[in-house]
Amino acid sequence: MSQTDEQPPRPSRALVATNHLYLLMVVGLATTLMLQSMRVFTSYMVFVIDQANRFELAITVFSTFGAIALGGVLLKTVRFRRTLIIGAFLFGVGRIGLQFLEMPEARLILGAVAMAAWGWLMLAVFRHWRESAAIGVGFGIALDLVIRIAGGTRDLPWNPAEVEHLVTVILVVGMLVGVAGIRGLHVQQLPEYSTRSVWSLAAFGPGIALYFIVTGNLGLAQVTTGLNLPEAAFLIAIGTALGLRFSIFAGEFLPSSNTGRVTTGPLIIAILLAIGLFLIGQGGIISGPGFILASAAGVVLLGFAVAGRASSDEVEPPLLYLTLAFTGGMLLKVGLLFLYYMYSGLPLLLGIIAGAFVLLAIPAGVPDTSRPIHQPRAVLIGAGVMAGVLALVTAWQLLSFQESEAGPPAEDQITVMTYNIQNGFDLDNRFDLEAIAQTIEAEDADVVVIQEIGRGWLVTADFDQVTWLSSRLDMPYVYGANSDDELWGNAIFTRLPILESDTTQYRDTDNLKRGAIEVAVETESGPVWIYGTHLDNPSDADEVRFSQGRELLEFWDEKTPGMVLGDLNAEPDDPLLAEFNEAGLRDLGVDLPDGAFTSSGGRRIDYILATDDLELVDIHITEVWTSDHLPVIATVSLPDED
Fold first, then answer.
1. How far apart (Å, rounded) are the C-alpha atoms in residues 514 and 519?
2. What is the pLDDT of residue 246?
């Protein structure tokens, strides 16, 4: 045999298995860290740039995720290993910065760097190691769920404490150790993938979008099923564990087929996903099995899309195709999410996201050859351990979780507060829900009416702020959804017994959808009716606000004694306030000092209105800028018992 015909040494099975495990470790940890980075980047982008500047938002988000395509340039010039190292290093630096730095602008920039560098890392892995990546993504999703269940839906970057810092460092170091552990690629026969299969990587973006919105959304599971946090988390944990287990054997669901027809495996999983989403849409008890089905099917189908199938073709698909598919899928994800939140969680857009995920994942089910994945024993053990950790964390939540309990009825007075918390972001756009809690706690109000509070929107920190505040303040709550997906709206927290409650959504809107909550709290004088609302905010939406105000008056229906609290986005001389006064709801804020204001723009737009049978004892504004609004607090005397 001539020297030119000499073949490279065949790698040992141990080397192949070791590299597979290291790559699985890298992708799993990178996926968890990416989900965390995405939450921070998206939220700070909305608040630092401002949601009203939609053109600037679009430029920022599309340039950030478009930069993922630079990974293709790196692969072409410096090859696999250096691209892997560069991507992992920059991604790790960005993620560490997100944990330790709290300056909004710095977090926005670091988030952009982290997301782009993560894309370079993943492109390097997808080039030849898609089977390892498919399993790693499942592990990463499961680990993300473990962390958020343990944190009461709050992710690591939102809690700058020592334990969270340590866990973040461990995750980043683990990812870098995995990169350093990959060896012998020059002697390992790396698989190539069919051109058709490469395009299934475009499904990764919509698949992750679906995870944020539904299949990994702990707040949505609570709102939809009516269960508490640990019970709802249990459903998603079961589904995720099942999905991880099945995704390990993805090759068994993809039999060889050169006929051009879609194999049954992906179709079955897609049908299960559709059934799960349908059941979730029905709400109530039936939505519980829906979350199990959708969570499991989402993990498996994402594994199909990422794994692809190795090709027997001698011609390798161009690197350009791989880069375009993955980058295009991520750009599609952010575009769909942008529309979804702009239209307040419109169900049609959720259907489009799920449809895009399924249709783009289908090419993974049209393989040119079949190469079932033979997993090392360590992977199977790891899947079992991850399922066990999910079970332990959920069990711990079930055992330690306590619903807040109401105290005794109010006696002769009641203190109320209205507070627009801007989704936990302060005047300087720094997220700090703990500071919000301390501001509320300092006033010791009996009833707290909150506007702009989220239960799992990616653009508002992606965790259940209602459940967290209820636990932190030890106050039961009634939540009133404004958005169609029921994950953003108003809430009323109270330590008084709740006798009745109701919610409504306004018919007219000019921006995000709005609504109101009704709560009857118990006092020794009888029930007091409390209403919380947030009217539309555009400066030229006077007619819409007036229409919403009339709907609110209809909702109130002249119940007495009653109070309306909230951000009305109207100043005291607005005709809307005159309409409320004429209906029998007077503005208690007229007793505030001249020039008093409640918003960062120097306007008084947050109100406490009351019926005439409630006598004002005190009203004041607390000048603490833990939001872009100031809280308004009033104490009133209750009418004598009949």
1. 17
2. 85
Phi, psi of 60 (to 5 degrees): -65, -50
Distance CA 228, CA 240 (A): 19
Give me the mean pLDDT over the 222-251 stretch. Answer: 89
Q: Are 248 and 375 in contact (CB under 8 A)?
A: yes
Within the chain, all domains assigned CATH 1.20.1250.20 are found at 9-399
Out of 136-145, 187-196, 252-261, 412-421, which region has the weakest mean confidence (pLDDT)? Answer: 252-261
Reply yes or no on whether the pLDDT at 186 is more than 60.
Answer: no
- CA 215/CA 482 separation, integer angstroms: 21
CA dist 277 and 627 (Å) reads 35
Instruction: Give the three-class secondary structure for 277.
Output: helix
Six-digit token string for 338: 């942008």
pLDDT in the model for residue 260: 43
CB of 201 within 8 A of CB of 308? Answer: yes
Q: What is the pLDDT of residues 586-607, one digit of tens each?
A: 999 999 999 999 999 999 999 9
Highest CATH level, class, for 9-399:
mainly alpha
Distance, in Å, from the CA atom of 86 to the CA atom of 91, rounded to the nearest integer, reads 8
* Higher local confidence (pLDDT), 379 or 62: 62
How far is it, in rounded angstroms, from Cα 446 to Cα 407?
10
Q: How far apart are CA 428 and CA 48, in angstroms?
A: 9
Position 309 scores a pLDDT of 61
d(CA 320, CA 304): 21
pLDDT at 124: 92
DSSP string, 145-194: HHHHHHTTT--GGG--SHHHHHHHHHHHHHHHHHHHH---TTTS----B-
Confidence at 441, pLDDT banded by 50, 70, 90: very high
DSSP state of 641: P
Strands in 528-534's sheet, in edge-to-edge order, are: 498-505, 515-521, 528-534, 562-567, 606-610, 586-587
| pLDDT confidence bin for 505, thresholds 50/70/90 | very high
Inform me whether the pLDDT recorded for 510 exceeds 70.
yes
Buried b (16+ CB within 10 A) or exposed e, 610-642: bbebbebeebebeebebbbbbbbbbbbebbeee
Backbone angles phi, psi at 546, to 5 degrees: -65, -40
Where in the chain are all domains bearing CATH 3.60.10.10? 413-637
CA distance 565 to 584: 14
User: Rounded to an integer, what distance in angstroms lies between the CA atom of residue 503 and that of residue 498?
Assistant: 14
Fold (topology level) of 413-637: Deoxyribonuclease I; Chain A (3.60.10)
